[in-house]
Amino acid sequence: MGSFTTSSILLFLFLSVVTSLPLSTNSRWIVDNGGRRVKLACVNWASHMEPVLAEGLSKQPMDTIAKRIVSMGFNCVRFTWPLYLITNDSLALLTVRQSFQRLNLLESLAGIQTNNPSIIDTVVSSLGENNVMVILDNHISNPGWCCSNLDGNGFFGDKYFNPDLWLTGLTQMATLFNGVTYVVGMSLRNEPRGPKQNVNDWYKYMQKGAEAVHSANLNVLVILSGLSFDRDLSFIQNQQVKLTFSGKLVFEAHWYGFSDGQNTWVNDNPNEVCGRVATYMMRTSGYLIDQGYPLFIGEFGIDQSGTNINGNRYINCFLGVAAELDLDWALWTLVGSYYLRDGVVGLNEYYGVMDYNWCGARNLSFIQRISALQSPFRGPGLSEAKPHKVIFHPLTGLCITGKSLVHPLLLGPCTESYPWSYSPQKTLVVKGTHFCLQTDEEFGTSVKLGIFCTDLNSKWEMISDSKMHLSAKLRDGKSICLDVASDNTIITNDCKCISKDNTCDPSSQWFKLVDSTRSSTRVERSLLQYLPGKGLVPNHLVG
């Protein structure tokens, strides 16, 4: 281990996962070499800190970590790296032992010797067996925690951000991984920011960076981040990025709860905040989808302990938007603990999906919650079923389904969702049947499926600023909203937290109608039709 430099280990991390299928773009979609959509469901793995080594290798063998990434449903790692790893010889030529000894991280060094005594061999074999795609993210120049407006790493011309050195580093990194097909993309720079940021220099250098990467490695996606901590790509509406190549350009945006204001989700009404920030996101980055570009949410995440109310409310909104737009994304973060962060040895990372010792998931329910978004709902080559909608519940990550059309509706895996159509008359009909969603006249009772779909109790509208309350009207004109009982049965209740009130949480009543061509195992087993004189008849018996 002592003879391997930190830069050489970065190469060996991914040498064994070569395949013959580089990715490209088809309008707003990322596709494989056969033109079929590939959804990036990534997790961020930090390697940009002062030790300049992928976090966690002192806690667990590399093969164990790789297998846990796959077991949690991720198909991709956004791997962060500091520019000086490649461009600063005094850093790049350090061995792992020297890097950890200079920081006095002797306990971590001992852990690496125990868990990964032959780093190259273990990394090659583990990632080779698990086929995890990799996006290389130039996170920072000078190794350390990121980010602030005044850290000297924010924008071209800052203390640690020499544009020419950056172009050299990008070229070297792209060359290093040329031919390593499972390195599928390069994000040119994380979160441009700070007092020097401006649109003209963004175009000048990002276009140069994109050309440099593509010239050195024709296969990788070229991923460009926006201004203001990657919150703003609105300027692309006025001026397109001009490149000599096509089929490789992806834009990246970031979205955290604290990005919306430190306590905005606590201090204001969640429906109003969700509507406001979702509109902002569409105006500053989401619009790119309609212009035919893939949008990759390179960072989002919450405190996995579940104690942060601001984050808990934000994530319900985020997951609703991510499902509706069927976004590619990378969760922050894999890391359960750091070798060294901000001067603290062994800092616990509460945003990490791994626990402190990297033994397992910190919050298994969260992993289950995002699982529906780890597979694509639609896209090129994904025509398993006719276009339909699923009714997605962000709080649980589940969709509305049922044991059969004569049983109560309930939440279940989205792979077993009923396929719905949403008509101009505001009715939600199970496709292939005459059955529509209906409410009863009493609060707290289960919703049902019926065949008389012209009454008010069969008309459902998306209301509130969040556009996530599915509401119908009773005969007396009062509105009622879909809700979820403690046993996951779908019921109706008073519509809650529609506006003004910041003390209540509307998330149990938040649903999204999501376009899908994904097949459903539930459809094959349970769809029935009503035939006059015969009652309920399985579809396959209907002539």
How would you explain this protein's 3D organization?
The protein is α/β, with parallel strands linked by helices. Helix 2 packs parallel to helix 7 and helix 8 packs parallel to helix 9. Strand 1 and strand 2 form a beta hairpin. 27% of the residues lie in helices and 21% in strands. It is globular. The N and C termini lie far apart (70 Å). The chain contains 15 helices and 26 strands. The strands form eight sheets. An eight-stranded parallel beta barrel has the order 3-4-5-6-7-8-9-10.
Would you kindly provide a brief summary of this structure?
Residues 61-334 form the Glycoside hydrolase family domain. This protein has 543 residues and is an alpha/beta fold.
What is the average of the pLDDT values? 89
Biggest sheet record: 8 strands, parallel, barrel
Which percent bin holds the helix content?
Answer: 25-40%
Cα-atom radius of gyration: 25 Å
The gross shape turns out to be globular
Count up the helices: 15
Strand content: 15-25%
Keywords: Glycosidase, Hydrolase, Signal
InterPro entries: GH, Glyco_hydro_5, Ricin_B-like_lectins
Protein name: Glycoside hydrolase family 5 domain-containing protein
Domain Glycoside hydrolase family: 61-334
Outline the secondary-structure elements.
Layout: H1 6-12, E1 24-26, E2 29-31, E3 41-45, H2 62-71, E4 76-82, H3 84-87, H4 89-92, H5 96-102, H6 106-115, H7 119-130, E5 133-140, H8 163-176, E6 183-187, H9 199-216, E7 221-225, H10 227-230, E8 249-254, H11 264-267, H12 270-290, E9 295-300, H13 309-325, E10 328-331, E11 340-341, E12 344-345, H14 364-370, E13 388-393, E14 398-402, E15 409-412, E16 420-422, E17 428-430, E18 436-438, E19 448-450, E20 461-463, E21 469-473, E22 479-484, E23 490-493, E24 512-516, H15 521-526, E25 528-531, E26 535-538
Parallel strand pairs: 3-4, 3-10, 4-5, 5-6, 6-7, 7-8, 8-9, 9-10
Antiparallel strand pairs: 1-2, 11-12, 13-14, 13-24, 14-15, 16-17, 18-19, 20-21, 21-22, 22-23, 25-26
Helix pairs in contact: 2-7, 8-9
Signal peptide: 1-20
Organism: Hibiscus sabdariffa
InterPro entries: GH, Glyco_hydro_5, Ricin_B-like_lectins
